[in-house]
């Protein structure tokens, strides 16, 4: 059996107890970011430069 230093054990326990939201977590902010990227990609793939035709 290998020995695990105590600081590693306490670090693991703290990491499990952490409730802070990380930027890469999935949530409303990430959904908004993905939606904007999809919109930009859709505009780039469109045959016209604008979605609304000129009057």
Structure description:
With 55 residues, this protein is mainly α. It has helices spanning 6-17, 28-45. The radius of gyration is 23 Å and the shape is rod-shaped. It starts with 5 loop residues before the first helix and ends in a 10-residue tail after the last helix.
Secondary structure: elements and pairs:
Layout: H1 6-17, H2 28-45
How would you briefly describe this protein structure?
The protein has helices at 6-17, 28-45. The protein is mainly α and 55 residues long.
Number of strands: 0
- What's the main sheet like? none
pLDDT < 50 runs, ≥5 residues: none
- Output mean pLDDT: 81
SSE pattern, N- to C-terminal? HH
Provide the helix percentage. Answer: 40-55%
Strand content: under 5%
Structural class: mainly alpha
- What characteristic shape results from the CA principal axes? rod-shaped
The separation of the N and C termini measures: 77 Å
Radius of gyration: 23 Å
Number of helices: 2
Q: Characteristics of this structure?
A:
about 55 residues, mainly alpha, 2 helices, about 55% helix
């Amino acid at each position: 059996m290998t020995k695990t230093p105590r600081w590693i054990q306490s670090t693991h326990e703290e990491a499990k107890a952490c409730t802070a939201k990380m930027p890469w977590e999935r949530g409303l902010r990430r959904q908004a970011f993905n939606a904007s990227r999809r919109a930009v990609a859709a505009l780039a793939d469109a045959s016209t430069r604008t979605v609304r035709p000129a009057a």
